[in-house]
Every structure is written in structure tokens, then in C-alpha cells.
């Protein structure tokens, strides 16, 4: 059976964390027949991923415009013009407004917002008259969760950027969308979910009753990228958490006291 992306070239930035969403997205695109270039700051895991999926690894700091330009140049030279570009890279900066003097707010903006401006610019320059760009946002951009304001606000700016880019590049049939995942049980988050009750407390506020796996996010990415009449959308991919609210830190701690076994479902 021919894959959805057979014969197409794709770029996935932010794919160096094995067991993470960017990694899973790259694998899913390759499984659908795409030639995939993967980018991130850490080159060793990228090379393992590229070897696994038969792709190309390019070192790229998502907050450096020159790196983003080089990523698209190298990917285009090696794999041909991309028709798909995904940016899953992010800096998870956390803190309170009261403590903002000591936070690296500019770095959060440089990677999570400004970096995506350059990502879209270079993606659309590399693409022809048809393509799909997907940016990975966060449920916290629409559902406030302390102390995530630096991260969430930079992601909200990115979601606004998506809507403007969809209008600007619509005449070229280039679609631009973002996904807003809720909690994801990645390998990097294993320490968080290892705490008694942590996963169950989060799952309690999710309509589907479980925390997402990276494969859940990758499946949604394939669907959204392949949807030819969808653009300018900030899509909640949170198992229905957007219908309720995220679990608060104090609730997670409280749940742990009442449910020492942890409860919840693992994905």
C-alpha cells in the first residue's frame, strides 16, 4: 500500500529526544513514505534517528535564524524540495510574573515564537506551490497553568502567527496549522510520571481518561499535515482536556496522598 507521503520530502525540527513527540512524528512520516530530514541541537541522537528511518540529520538551533536557513538548504539539497515542514522544538521556560526579572524570557521568545517566524519563512521559500507547515504548540497557550506563563505566552504568540501565515501563504496552497497537545508521557517526562499519583491526577481532567503518548501526537500530525483543506487552525490534541482544565500542581500532590498506587492509565 502506498503511504500518504510517498515521494514527498519532509523536515522535522526538534526531533532529537528518543521517545519524544518530534522523534515519533519523524518516524510516522517515514512510515508514510516520506524522505525525512531531522534537525535539533544534539546531533548524536539525530543521527541514530536518521539511520533508523533512512533520513538525513542536520544540527540546528531553533532559536538561530542562520541554523534554520542551513537546515532547509541542506535538506533541499539532499532530499529535494520539501512539501512538509514541522517544528516541534521548544524551550520550556517556567516561572511566575513576579519573578520575571530572573527569567530568560527572551530565549523563550527567540525559540518558541521568533524561531517559528524564520521557520515559516524558510519553509515557504523552499516549498513550491503546495505544502503543509505544522507547528507544535501547547494546551497551556489557551488553558492557563501556573507557573508556565513564559512558555505559554510564547506559544500563544506562535498560534497567532499560524493564522497570519495561513492567510499570507494560502494563495500558494501552503497550509499552516498548529497543534496544542496536553500532557504527553514522553521518556523525558518519565521522572514526572514516576511520582505517585502524577499521571492519574492529570488523566482525571482528560475526557479520554489517559495521558497522551508520543504516538498519539504523531498520528494527529499525520492527519493534520495531510488534510488538504485545513489551514489556520490551532488544533487541540489533548484527549478532550480542552473541555475541562489542566490538573493543578496542588491537586497532583493531593491525589498522590489519596492514591499512593498512582492509578491512571499508562500509554
TrEMBL record:
Keyword Transmembrane tagged: no
Alphabetic keyword roster: Oxidoreductase
Gene3D superfamilies: NAD(P)-binding Rossmann-like Domain
Gene Ontology molecular function: oxidoreductase activity
Keyword Oxidoreductase in annotation: yes
Catalytic activity, reaction form: 2,5-dichlorocyclohexa-2,5-dien-1,4-diol + NAD(+) = 2,5-dichlorohydroquinone + NADH + H(+)
Family classification: Belongs to the short-chain dehydrogenases/reductases (SDR) family.
Protein name, as recorded: Short-chain dehydrogenase/reductase SDR
Species this protein is from: Sphingobium chlorophenolicum L-1
Amino acid at each position: 500500500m502506498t503511504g500518504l507521503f510517498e515521494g514527498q520530502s519532509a523536515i522535522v525540527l526538534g526531533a532529537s529526544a528518543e521517545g519524544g513527540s518530534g522523534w515519533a512524528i519523524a518516524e510516522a512520516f517515514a512510515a508514510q513514505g516520506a524522505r525525512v530530514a531531522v534537525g535539533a541541537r544534539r546531533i548524536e541522537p539525530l543521527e541514530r534517528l536518521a539511520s533508523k528511518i533512512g533520513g538525513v540529520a542536520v544540527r540546528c538551533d531553533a532559536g538561530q535564524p542562520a541554523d534554520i536557513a542551513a537546515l532547509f538548504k541542506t535538506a533541499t539539497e539532499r532530499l529535494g524540495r520539501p512539501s512538509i515542514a514541522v517544528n516541534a522544538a521548544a524551550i520550556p521556560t517556567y516561572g511566575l510574573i513576579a519573578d520575571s526579572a530572573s527569567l530568560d524570557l527572551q530565549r523563550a521568545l527567540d525559540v518558541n515564537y521568533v524561531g517559528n517566524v524564520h521557520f515559516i519563512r524558510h519553509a515557504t521559500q523552499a516549498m513550491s506551490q503546495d505544502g503543509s507547515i505544522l507547528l507544535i504548540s501547547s494546551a497551556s497557550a489557551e488553558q492557563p497553568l501556573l507557573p508556565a506563563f513564559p512558555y505559554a505566552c510564547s506559544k500563544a504568540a506562535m498560534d497567532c502567527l499560524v493564522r497570519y501565515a495561513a492567510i499570507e501563504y494560502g494563495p500558494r496552497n501552503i497550509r499552516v496549522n498548529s497543534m496544542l497537545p496536553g500532557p504527553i508521557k514522553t521518556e523525558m517526562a518519565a521522572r514526572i510520571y514516576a511520582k505517585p499519583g502524577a499521571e492519574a491526577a492529570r488523566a482525571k481532567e482528560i475526557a479520554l481518561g489517559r495521558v497522551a503518548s508520543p504516538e498519539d501526537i504523531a498520528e494527529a500530525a499525520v492527519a493534520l499535515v495531510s488534510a488538504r483543506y485545513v489551514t489556520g487552525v490551532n488544533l487541540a490534541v489533548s484527549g478532550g482536556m480542552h473541555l475541562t482544565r489542566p490538573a493543578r500542581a496542588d491537586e497532583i500532590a493531593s491525589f498522590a496522598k489519596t492514591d499512593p498506587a498512582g492509578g491512571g492509565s499508562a500509554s
